[in-house]
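Hi everyone,

Forwarding the result from last night's run.
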Amino acid sequence: MTGVRMNDFAAGMDEAAQRVPCSRRWLQQFLANNPADKAGVPFYYTIGNRKMFTDVDIDRIRNFNREIIRCQLSSFPRAKASLRTTMAAGRISASLLTEAHALLGPRLQRELSKIGKTKSNVVALPQKKAQHL
């Protein structure tokens, strides 16, 4: 058992959660996502199927969590860039789409109505009379 001295306090999951302080569920989720620190040293040692924590382990969990929060706070959102403005001459009362519609509208209607006047290629077939037996 490296890093564990005989006079160190050893706590189970419930007591370690109280000393962090956090809920047991939060501590279990934290250990599932982060079983060891950046140096690769586990945050706990096991005895059978129980996870045990020393005072040093609990301090390392606290410090690791502080580091995560510090990184989150330092990555603040960037300030929005100012809008670019340009100088333009001419009228700006109507949008380009409205202007295009005004210019093409009558022409488009004329073209569509011409298409509608063309003779259809569909031929009506005579219906057969029903035969009675």
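The CA atoms of residues 101 and 108 lie 9 Å apart.

Cheers,
N.
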